């Protein structure tokens, strides 16, 4: 029997998880998506990541840089997320990528698809990074999930020719190409839930540590981290 009507399904969206890859046009640079944040003013969604990821362009006329989604296991992204406005990385190495493409889906989770039993870690909130000796983990595009021990807090490091303060040093874990990775405490009793505690911005191989910016330095009064509670 021939139907006289058709059913239209909503378009499939490309979900961008924390820990997924992001790249600029023509692979000028690739980094890792940190986590989604929302504007308190108008609920506009942005991806927070390392600001230095945009330093090589290519630049739009307004100075912004477009970023594309790069899921784990892929080498080229073809889904535009949106632009990162020129970031001020003089004090904190962070940048915000505006979600401009309606085909991109927002999800308050971190990718963990190497684990078939727990392929995503759901963000349930944030917690201060305040305990030396604690174990934290990150999800990154290149090295996926890896963990290290917090070596020191509120320290100063040189990065990209700049001196940054208030930084946490974490024992060396694979993090090359993973700038922007979300960092969370290792608390198995909470899984698949996690708290975001910071963002990885660089590594110092010779000195044996990765650089993590604590969450309290990343979140300002005008934005907040998207959690699973926001979907209820």
UniProtKB/TrEMBL annotation:
Xref: SUPFAM superfamilies: Trypsin-like serine proteases (SSF50494)
One Gene Ontology molecular-function label: peptidase activity
Keywords for this protein: Hydrolase, Protease
Keyword Hydrolase: yes
Superkingdom in the source lineage: Eukaryota
Family matches, as InterPro entries: Peptidase_S1_PA, Peptidase_S1_PA_chymotrypsin
Any single GO BP term: proteolysis
Protein name per the record: Serine protease
Organism: Gigaspora margarita
Lineage: Eukaryota, Fungi, Fungi incertae sedis, Mucoromycota, Glomeromycotina
């Amino acid at each position: 029997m021939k139907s006289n009507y058709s059913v239209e399904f909503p378009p499939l969206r490309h979900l961008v998880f924390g820990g997924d890859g992001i790249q600029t046009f023509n692979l000028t640079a690739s980094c890792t998506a940190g986590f989604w944040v929302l504007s308190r003013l108008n609920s506009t969604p942005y991806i927070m990541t390392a600001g230095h990821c945009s330093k090589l362009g290519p630049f739009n006329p307004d100075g912004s840089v477009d970023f594309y989604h790069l899921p784990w296991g892929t080498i080229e992204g073809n889904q535009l997320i949106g632009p990162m406005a020129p970031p001020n990385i003089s004090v904190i190495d962070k940048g915000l990528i505006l979600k401009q493409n309606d085909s991109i889906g927002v999800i308050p989770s971190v990718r963990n698809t190497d684990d078939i039993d727990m392929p995503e870690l759901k963000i349930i909130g944030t917690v201060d990074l305040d305990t030396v000796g604690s174990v934290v983990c990150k999800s990154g595009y290149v090295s996926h999930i890896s963990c290290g021990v917090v070596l020191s807090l509120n320290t100063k490091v040189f990065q990209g020719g700049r001196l940054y303060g208030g930084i946490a040093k974490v024992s060396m874990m694979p993090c090359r190409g993973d700038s922007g990775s979300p960092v969370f405490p290792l608390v198995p009793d909470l899984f698949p839930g996690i708290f975001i505690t910071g963002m990885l911005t660089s590594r110092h191989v010779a000195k044996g540590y990765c650089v993590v910016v604590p969450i309290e330095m990343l979140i300002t009064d005008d934005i907040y981290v998207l959690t699973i509670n926001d979907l209820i």
